[in-house]
TrEMBL record:
<dbReference type="GO" id="GO:0005829">
    <property type="term" value="C:cytosol"/>
</dbReference>
<dbReference type="GO" id="GO:0047465">
    <property type="term" value="F:N-acylglucosamine-6-phosphate 2-epimerase activity"/>
</dbReference>
<dbReference type="GO" id="GO:0005975">
    <property type="term" value="P:carbohydrate metabolic process"/>
</dbReference>
<dbReference type="Pfam" id="PF04131">
    <property type="entry name" value="NanE"/>
</dbReference>
<dbReference type="InterPro" id="IPR011060">
    <property type="entry name" value="RibuloseP-bd_barrel"/>
</dbReference>
<dbReference type="GO" id="GO:0019262">
    <property type="term" value="P:N-acetylneuraminate catabolic process"/>
</dbReference>
<comment type="pathway">
    <text>Amino-sugar metabolism; N-acetylneuraminate degradation; D-fructose 6-phosphate from N-acetylneuraminate: step 3/5.</text>
</comment>
<dbReference type="InterPro" id="IPR007260">
    <property type="entry name" value="NanE"/>
</dbReference>
<keyword id="KW-0413">Isomerase</keyword>
<dbReference type="InterPro" id="IPR013785">
    <property type="entry name" value="Aldolase_TIM"/>
</dbReference>
<comment type="function">
    <text>Converts N-acetylmannosamine-6-phosphate (ManNAc-6-P) to N-acetylglucosamine-6-phosphate (GlcNAc-6-P).</text>
</comment>
<dbReference type="GO" id="GO:0006053">
    <property type="term" value="P:N-acetylmannosamine catabolic process"/>
</dbReference>
<keyword id="KW-0119">Carbohydrate metabolism</keyword>
<comment type="similarity">
    <text>Belongs to the NanE family.</text>
</comment>
<protein>
    <recommendedName>
        <fullName>Putative N-acetylmannosamine-6-phosphate 2-epimerase</fullName>
        <ecNumber>5.1.3.9</ecNumber>
    </recommendedName>
</protein>
Length: 227
């Protein structure tokens, strides 16, 4: 499951598609997730991001691109792969990269972000992606040893306002700091133009989820426009 530096480099300037469905939705099935992921790869996705252990397992069998896995446990606070136990389970399910909450908030198991990242590196072959909500989070995540940093939690952790589109200001600020690890743009990227803007702001790669893989939301956009 080891993702080599050369393989990670293939993501530069590319699209990563987040394939997730919410609990209770018709598409909330690991087999469906894998099919959506495979379809995204046909369309040009260089990697996919999926939530849940079974989803990771099914997706690994369905695609030949890197899989970024996570485990959401809860609905508020630190809930994206919140503990080392969650992270190792995601890695063991087959993820090349484990996405974890990369904020400076207290983690449920009491471990620091650095301890969590170190545990991932010591007990699996996966890389660690820190989902951050601010510049301060990103700097701390790099210091903690994260292999990738993302803007996933910008507007959700309480430090920055929720922008209607991607937080281009935060992207540019982190990119300008030159931390030396891949910066992944994620969050509220709804159009190809916004994806391009995120890349131009300094992102290494761009994650798009809802606008590609969540039919209920996409349908709602069109339905609302017609009212």
């Amino acid at each position: 499951m080891l993702l080599s530096p050369d393989a990670l480099e293939t993501l530069r300037g590319r699209l990563v598609v987040s394939c997730q469905a919410y609990p209770g939705e018709p598409m909330r099935d690991p087999r469906t997730t894998a099919q959506v992921a495979a379809s995204a790869v046909i369309g040009g996705a260089a990697a996919v991001r999926v939530q849940g252990l079974a989803d990771v397992q099914h997706t690994r069998a369905a695609v030949e691109v890197p899989v970024i896995g996570l485990w959401k446990d809860g609905h508020s606070g630190v809930f994206i792969t919140p503990t080392l136990r969650h992270a190792l389970a995601v890695a063991n399910a087959g993820s090349h990269v484990v996405a974890i909450d990369g904020t400076r908030r207290e983690r449920p198991d009491g471990l620091s972000l650095a301890q969590t990242v170190a545990g991932i590196h010591a007990d699996s072959h996966a890389l660690a992606m820190a989902d951050c909500g601010s510049f301060q989070d990103a700097a701390a995540a790099v210091e903690a040893g994260a292999d990738l940093i993302g803007t996933t939690l910008s507007g959700y952790s309480g430090e920055r306002p929720k922008t209607p589109g991607p937080d281009l200001e935060l992207l540019a600020e982190i990119a300008a700091a030159g931390f030396g690890v891949p910066l992944i743009a994620e969050g509220r990227i709804h159009t190809p133009a916004q994806a391009r803007q995120a890349l131009d702001a300094g992102a290494f790669a761009v994650v798009v989820g809802t606008a590609i893989t969540h039919p209920a939301t996409i349908t709602g956009w069109f339905s609302d426009a017609l009212k």
